[in-house]
Amino acid sequence: MYQQQNMLSFTPDANRIMTQSNNNGIMNYVSGYPQEVDVKLKKLAFFDILATLVNPSLLAPTSSQRLHENTLYFTLSPTQATEIASNRDIRNATRVEHIVQVQLRFCLMDTATEQDDYFPPNISVKVNGKQCQLPNPIPTNKPGVEPKRPPRPVNITGNIKASPLVTNTVQVSWCSEFNRGHVVSIYLVKKLTSPQLLQRLKTKGIKSADITRNLIIDKLKEDADCDIATTMLRVSLICPLGKMRMSTPCRASTCSHLQCFDACLYLQMNERKPTWNCPVCDKQAVYENLVIDGYFQDVIASKNLGPDSNEIQLHEDGSWSVHVLKSDAQTLDTPVKPAQKVEIISDDLEVISTKCDDKSGSNHGVEPSSTTGVTVDLTLSDSDDDLPLKRKQNSGNSNR
Questions:
Q1: What's one Pfam family here (predicted)?
Q2: CATH number where 169 lies
Q3: In the prediction, which pLDDT does 223 show?
Q4: What pLDDT is recorded for position 241?
Q5: Same domain, residue pair 140 and 111
Q6: pLDDT category, 90, cuts 50, 70, 90?
Q7: For residues 99 and 190, is the Cβ–Cβ distance under 8 A?
């Protein structure tokens, strides 16, 4: 393990914010440097900390204005410089991927709990005089609200000088917030992948099936005391993320539900965009609290589970059975409305019959007589519509 380093070494009074009054009575800020504070940042699942290059330090105001600037210094050891240079992917010439990285993190000044990443307003970072790219601010439609950047660490490896003979300089400028302080720190970290985290999760151990079985029994006992008792629970074997059967069922120990999700898909999703929210209940499900459920792992590996069975039923004794879907289709004896028979006689005439065929079928194929139907002449003009019905019929018969 690397030795902890901190290059914030200044004169004894350099860490203080010195002020003095001029002839007009206005207070001037002479100098200000980051001061080390006892703040702990939350551990990032996809990064292992190899060394601390700059301890968490409070960004100190440098003037009476809102905009301030501080400078940090750190130097790599020969071993650290070698680790950075030897652990990189140079297959893409336009963008070199470093496995061992120098990571810059910001958070709020709060010693009570572990802090999430948090960027100060209007922040700008220069490493060795070069502008460092920060996460893009999240747009907002609220008037008067400044857009905030996503809470992520900043990889500054591409801007540093990986040499033990050169001191790296990090300049941070930001705007102060009322009644809030901000902390900065720099670490040497190793980037991990989702398959590596999945292997660590499996190595950590599998939650005993008996624990889940007792949880099922307790849940059904609680429902038995209600007015409407529940005799079984239905659980899906489909992952809510990938919409396919789970291969490694897991859930967070902080969640109270029985429904699991696939650990592999969950880690891949957070590798692309780290949110760490449970896809079932939407509560925080950080990596440290994830456990593989042995009960549902046995269910998925069971020979009693068919390839098309995606739901199971959990019973009062903690056992399970395959949920069989029942067909909801029913045959309804509803009367059928007889259809009207339409016979085309010529281009201008048609006969419409409203008389139903005999049930015995003896009249099938028999043409309707002229007495059972009404012949309508479609070539009549609009003025003929006012004639009595009898005259219309006679006129139609004469035309035919």
A1: zf-MIZ
A2: 2.60.120.780
A3: 60
A4: 93
A5: yes
A6: confident
A7: yes
| Residue at which a domain ends, from 146, 171, 192 | 192
Do residue 114 and residue 75 come from a single domain? yes
Q: What local confidence, expressed as pLDDT, does residue 227 receive?
A: 56
How far is it, in rounded angstroms, from Cα 52 to Cα 39? 13
pLDDT at 226: 60
Report how far residue 117's alpha carbon sits from residue 8's, in angstroms, rounded to the nearest whole number: 21
pLDDT band at 143 (very low <50, low <70, confident <90, very high): confident
Encode pLDDT of 294-310 as tens digits. Answer: 999 999 999 888 888 88
Domain assignment of residue 359, yes or no: no
Q: What is the pLDDT of residue 119?
A: 95
Residue 44, token pair as written in the block:
């990032």
pLDDT in tens, 271-299: 999 999 999 999 999 999 999 999 999 99
Residue 57: strand pairing partners: 36, 184
What is the distance between the alpha carbons of residues 178 and 384, in angstroms, rounded to a whole number?
A: 90
- Which residue, chain included where needed, has tokens 């070698």? 82
**What is the count of structural domains for the chain?**
2
**Could you tell me if 97 and 158 are in contact, meaning their C-beta atoms sit under 8 angstroms apart?**
no
Nearest to 259 by CA among 231, 234, 285, 230: 234
- Residue 1 is assigned to a structural domain of this protein: no
Residues 229, 96 within the same domain = no
List CB contacts of 352: < 8 A, sequence separation 6 or more. 340, 341, 342, 373, 374, 376
List b or e across 1-23, with b for residues whose CB sees 16 or more CB atoms inside 10 angstroms. eeeebbbbeeeeeebeeeeeeee
Residues 48 and 102 in one domain: yes
Same domain flag for 72 and 112: yes
Domain region containing 116: 35-192
Question: Can you spell out the DSSP letters for 228-262?
Answer: S---EEEEE-B-TTTSSB-SSEEEETT------EE
Amino acid at 325: L
Final residue of a domain: which of 304, 322, 340? 322
Rounded to whole angstroms, the Cα distance separating 185 from 53 reads 8
Verdict on whether the full-model pTM lies above 0.90: no
375/96 Cα distance (integer angstroms): 88
142 lies in the same domain as 226: no
Whether pLDDT at 194 is above 60 = yes
